[in-house]
Amino acid sequence: MENVREVTLSILEDLINICKEENILFKTTSDKITNPYLKNTLNNCADEKDRNIHSLETEIK
Questions:
Q1: Residues 20 and 53 sit within 8 Å (Cβ to Cβ)
Q2: What is the pLDDT of residue 1?
Q3: Are 26 and 46 contacting, i.e. CB atoms less than 8 angstroms apart?
Q4: Residue 37 has what pLDDT?
Q5: Buried b vs exposed e over 44-53: b needs ≥16 C-beta within 10 Å?
Q6: Cβ atoms of residues 60 and 26 within 8 Å
Q7: In the chain, domain spans
């Protein structure tokens, strides 16, 4: 049973890392864009990734 827990935690940690990488990409791209609508969309996506990271970290705890 402990193995299932370890695998689950590993998957959640991988998802957190993916969200962090995506967050950086959204923010970096947003900094380079001048179109306000697209910049806002990318910032909203980055904010959503922040919420996802927080939810996954809460789930691990």
A1: yes
A2: 58
A3: yes
A4: 97
A5: ebbeebeebb
A6: no
A7: 21-61
Quick one: tokens of 1? 């049973």
Q: Can you give the pLDDT of all 61 residues of the chain as single tens digits?
A: 579 888 999 999 999 999 999 999 999 999 999 999 999 999 999 999 999 999 999 988 8
Q: Which two tokens stand for residue 39?
A: 């910049």
The rounded distance, in Å, linking the Cα atoms of 9 and 61 is: 10
Residue 28: exposed, middle, or buried by beta-carbon count in 10 A (0-12, 13-18, 19+)?
exposed
pTM equals 0.83
Positive or negative CA dihedral for 21, 27, 33, 35? positive
